Amino acid sequence: MAETEFRDRLYRQAAEQLAAIDGDWARLVAAVGPCTHEPRPAREPYEALVRAVAYQQLNTRAADRIVARFLDLYPGCEFPAPEQLLATGFDQLRACGFSARKIETIQGLAQGRLAGLVPDRDEADAMEDEALIARLVSLRGIGRWTVEMLLIYTLARMDVMPADDFGVREGYRHLKSLAALPGRREMAEAALPLRPYRTIAAWYLWRVSTLPDYTRRSRVVPG
Predict the structure, then answer these.
(1) Active site annotation includes 165
(2) Domain covering 45-153 assigned CATH 1.10.340.30 in the classification
(3) Band of the pLDDT at 214, cuts 50, 70, 90?
(4) Which residue in 93, 95, 123, 122 sits closest to 108, CA to CA?
């Protein structure tokens, strides 16, 4: 209970700081309401990264089905160990819905975990954001966005802005009535005043598309 109360208090503080930035942010925070961001800190980085790869460039429903079929390959365990994943045949993984490229990536994560390149939870908790990003993007198929999802949802870091994320960029475009999506550099610079709560800011930007005003007025600009 104490942890939940601390989190809720932190989220309220973050929302108040964001709302104080300008009228646009104040209206967004008021329209969305209290932050209900829910990290999943029980997962190990290896598991979180494999799951993040499954969701890359797919809608949530399709990725959910792939992950469910993947987990069905390993009855009796919550998530396969790296050794189990590496022992799984290509055709079995392909039948789950993974592309050949994603199979190569998740197998690389399993190998990286066994080699110590993918850290365990305690080591990851002790690493700075940029150090962890630099380390993990050396793995084939792992980009900055994937590691940022690890930072946000598994390591519960509060000051991460995934500036390449389409939903974040589109949310900001609508928030500021921009003619086109901001680029990564522009989005990163725009996020500087949002420190040290850039994760919460991203959470609010992700929810712009759920607002009635968005569905009435917004046109999605291809990225």
Answers:
(1) yes
(2) yes
(3) low
(4) 93
